[in-house]
């Protein structure tokens, strides 16, 4: 049997290759997972952009230990197809960080009824949030018949929810307008939903001119502004900038124009072609947001059970917002499925290019049923 991997050039994300290699035998305590489905979103492009800095390339080193090529992490579902671990039987369903591969070998540690951590040696020292795997049978967020929707929304929403929590903290109880770039992205409007529910100030979506109408129809922004109109915004309204785009020129324009900019948060990189140092910025320093660090902070403050309860309740609201039919009959989220190396490669490149329809959620798998 062979393993199929999709490799991405670490210096040119548009360059990919499909590689096959022989399976390795399991050591005692290890399990082999068949990677059944995973989402491809702007999150994954952020992982590539921060691959060296945040060590994302280290989670799933390619079979040939290449320096040039890496296996990009994704979030998805997998099944145990071979086990040498007494607590993880064949057929067990799990959710977590996966490689863009047909299968993966893990070494479960700290196993309980809800989850386990991967104890593979090369992942020692990497962030525990990404080494954590949920056992689906007892996972409060899992529903077997909506795994494709969960694969798309779950990792994005966790970021949305954590960012909105941090923004509310930064508002410090005062009314403060929030500006969110890449407003048509699912992570962005997930953040907007949470902030609108808090009701502490206007939430303004920033987007390309072609996506203005879509963002206005969402109903979660008080106002939508095209990128080429940001210099017409009121300069003296206290505001916080939440940057999901990584667009350096846009960030420069906002920092220069907005005299009452209180905080500037950098989260994602949907505009890969416009990355790079933005030069000297006026106003507040840019704070790079780390979801794993925020999870660790809130888990310590609230406790694991309370963190999970709040997350589960909030996720249900976003899922309903995305999957219920709209006035035109279609839901906000439309799932596209891609199976096999060629289709997965094409879907990845579409995401890298920014996609064409903000409603689409791409779910993929290298294994062809």
Task: Describe the fold and architecture.
- The protein is an alpha/beta fold and 369 residues long.
- The chain has two domains: 2-139 and 333-365, Quinone Oxidoreductase, Chain A, domain 1 (Alpha-Beta Complex); 151-293, Rossmann fold (3-Layer(aba) Sandwich), CATH 3.40.50.
- Helix content is 29%, strand content 28%.
- It is built from eight helices and 18 strands.
- Strands 3, 5, 6, 7, 8, 9, 10, 17 and 18 form a nine-stranded mixed beta sheet that branches.
- Helix 2 packs across helix 3.
- The longest helix is centred in the middle third of the chain and has 25 residues, at 147-171.
- The chain is globular, with a radius of gyration of 21 Å.
CATH class of the largest domain: Alpha Beta
Report the total helices: 8
State the end-to-end distance.
16 Å
Strand content: 25-35%
Tell me about the biggest sheet?
9 strands, mixed
Which class best fits the helix and strand makeup? alpha/beta
Broad shape: globular
Number of domains: 2
Instruction: Spell out the helices and strands N to C.
Output: EEEHEEEEEEEHEHEHEEHEEHHEHE
Uncertain residue segments: 270-277
Name given to the CATH homologous superfamily of the largest domain? Medium-chain alcohol dehydrogenases, catalytic domain
Q: Please bin the fraction of helical residues.
A: 25-40%
């Amino acid at each position: 049997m062979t393993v199929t991997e999709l490799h991405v050039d670490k210096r040119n994300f548009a360059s990919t290759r499909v590689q096959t290699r022989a399976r390795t035998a399991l050591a005692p305590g290890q399990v082999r997972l068949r990677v059944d489905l995973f989402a491809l979103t702007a999150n994954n492009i952020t992982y590539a952009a921060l691959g060296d800095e945040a060590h994302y390339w280290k989670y799933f080193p390619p079979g040939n230990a290449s320096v040039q090529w890496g296996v990009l992490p994704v979030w998805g579902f997998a099944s145990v197809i071979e086990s040498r671990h007494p607590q993880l039987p064949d057929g067990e369903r799990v959710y977590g960080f996966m490689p863009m591969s047909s299968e993966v070998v893990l070494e479960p540690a700290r196993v309980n009824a809800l989850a386990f951590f991967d104890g593979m040696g090369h992942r020692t020292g990497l962030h525990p949030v990404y080494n954590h795997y949920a056992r689906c049978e007892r996972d409060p967020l899992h529903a077997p018949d909506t795994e494709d929707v969960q694969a798309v929304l779950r990792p994005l929403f966790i970021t949305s929810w954590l960012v909105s929590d941090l923004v509310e903290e930064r508002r410090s109880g005062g009314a403060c307008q929030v500006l969110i770039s890449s407003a048509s992205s699912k992570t962005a409007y997930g953040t907007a939903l949470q902030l609108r529910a808090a009701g502490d100030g206007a939430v303004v979506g920033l987007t390309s001119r072609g996506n203005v109408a879509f963002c206005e129809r969402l109903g979660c922004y008080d106002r939508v502004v095209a990128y080429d109109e940001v210099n017409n915004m009121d300069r003296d309204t206290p505001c916080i900038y939440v940057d999901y785009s990584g667009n350096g020129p846009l960030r420069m324009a906002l920092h220069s124009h907005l005299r009452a900019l209180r905080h500037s948060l950098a989260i994602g990189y949907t505009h890969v072609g416009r990355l790079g140092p933005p030069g000297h910025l006026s106003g507040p320093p840019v704070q790079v947001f780390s979801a794993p660090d925020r999870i660790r902070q809130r888990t310590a403050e609230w406790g694991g059970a309370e963190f999970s309860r709040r997350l589960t309740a909030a996720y249900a609201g976003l899922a309903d917002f995305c999957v219920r039919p709209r006035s035109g009959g279609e839901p906000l989220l439309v799932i596209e499925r891609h199976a096999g190396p060629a289709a997965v490669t094409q879907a990845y490149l579409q995401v890298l290019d920014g996609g064409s329809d903000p409603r689409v959620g791409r779910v993929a798998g290298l294994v062809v049923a």
